Amino acid sequence: MPLRSTGCLKCRQRKIRCSEERPGCRKCLVHGVACPGYKVARKGDIEFHDQTDQTVTRLQADPDELRRPSKASPPASAPPEQLTFTWASFDAGTQPPNVRHTPPVTANPLPHIHPPSSLHSPAAIRVRLYDTFLRYYVPRDLSSHGHGVWSSNTNLLAHLMFSQQKCRPCLPHALDALALVQIGSMHHDRNLIQKAIEAYTKSLASLRVALSKPESVHDDTVMAATCMLSSCEFYTEFRVQGASWVSHQRGIQRMVDARGPASIMNSKLALHMFFQITSGSLALSLLLRKQDPYATEKWSAVEARATAHDDFSESNHLGLRLPALLERHDRLDLNHAGSSNDLDDLLLDCNEIQMQMRRRLMALHAREARDDKSWIALVEIEHFHPFSDLVTDRTMTRAFRFPSFETAYIHSSHWLRMYMLRQTIRSLHDMRQRLIPGWRPDEKHAVTERELLFYVLSFCRLVPFFVETGHGATGDMSCFFLLYIAEQYFRTNKHWRWVRWIKHVSERIFTKGMSMPFGIAAPELPSQANDVRYSDEKAELAFNRIEFPNAPLLPDVGRNVTPQGTVWMPSRSAPTPTSPALDRVKQQISSPG
């Protein structure tokens, strides 16, 4: 053998000519020995080996390896990348420079980590990527077990990402784009973000090809890819690359309509995605104040079958009826001969859905009171350390804490819909007064400005809890619509201090690269908002003293004042200030997870 032989180490040791095939030479295969691979020719050269089997064996023996940071030092320059995407600075055990722990003054990319001697295969890297994405994306307190919406949502993402079934390339590209942009944004890694943009572009191109074929409308992977691309619209990096969130939502609606109810009902995966689609469609319908397409008789059987029948899905089922009421309100013409009857019919329908929404919340509190899960605490903002460290504007001094992310999300959905419904009812009362001089709603049914302000303040008070580190990107996304509606209200009522606060919060707390999608992005601040002379500082700061209105929004609720904050619980759960249930709640507030 020559001194600089390029053969494998075993052939060099045995001093025989090597076939030099990759990943293992044929001579080793013939002699029944494992090929140990090839020596690096020169210092600094890198050999790529398919080590999937070794990787799986190693991870099975030591599952904690994924969580340990790499000890390798950064090289002067990265080698040419041979994989679909580069691991670069990302490592499952490396903590990202999270914007909720350090103010996002400037980007701070992590150094590129030199690949260790035993490289993961592309398949292993993708599994590792998706696993880490789910930990960044999904709230930690959501179980992957059970039959609820949030558990099944987590399982749906995992199924799409880890399924071994062959599918159209638009889906894996869309999944790569979503995972890479989330992780790249967390790590401020431009390399990962650029790979995410490339994957997004490939997915769009592949989707266009797929949609040009009539049979693709019944393909679950095409529907799933469209849903994933819609989720990508929450990241600013994709805004200039493709359509907006609103356009994606409308495209999904057209695709589902072309597929039809029968085709959806024949696929378990399609049924699950249908529920996800109705959630996005409801947000768009509320935004546009137009009847939701899935609230019609055509889709009622599919919607009933797709619903998980837990608290959130039952709330969504009621919510789908709300946009049609808003549209009917906007179309009322008081000059029309039958407008009085139309108005009264609409008032009856609004009051009916209002009672159903409140009964649904009452049932939730009654059922969960036994497990200490039915409480809300209004506590000082300092209890939310990631939020209070980053947001220096103390316009809002107290925020809500809940027993779980799921409970908080159900209340946020309820309060948002109640705000839009009660605002509509107040407008209908005003119209009726114009039609019938001297008529007034009774005090029990009247809608006050203080009640509407409570709802809007509740949107803001939910934000510190939603953006806690353990709630991931899902927590960030849960804030966007709430802050948009709150900003509109404060702007209309010229509460400029709160308009400035929302802008400050949006700039400071969200993961870098995430913000409201096109269609609901807040407009620029007017000059008045930046001038303190236009704000009634005393009145606007007094908003912090507002708690629940006299008409209880939480039925059968008792108010308990504690050193940690004000706690609302069902009366039978906390009959006295010294009840064990209240003590457990106070402990949870003091030691948030």
Automatic annotation (TrEMBL):
Residues 7-35 form the Zn(2)-C6 fungal-type domain. The keyword Nucleus applies. The keyword DNA-binding does not apply. Keywords: Nucleus. InterPro entries: Osmoadaptation_assoc, Zn2-C6_fun-type_DNA-bd_sf, Zn2Cys6_DnaBD. Residues 60-80, 564-593 are annotated as: Disordered. SUPFAM superfamilies: Zn2/Cys6 DNA-binding domain. GO terms for molecular function: DNA-binding transcription factor activity, RNA polymerase II-specific; zinc ion binding. Residues 570-581 have a biased composition (Low complexity). Gene3D superfamilies: Zn(2)-C6 fungal-type DNA-binding domain (4.10.240.10). This is Zn(2)-C6 fungal-type domain-containing protein.
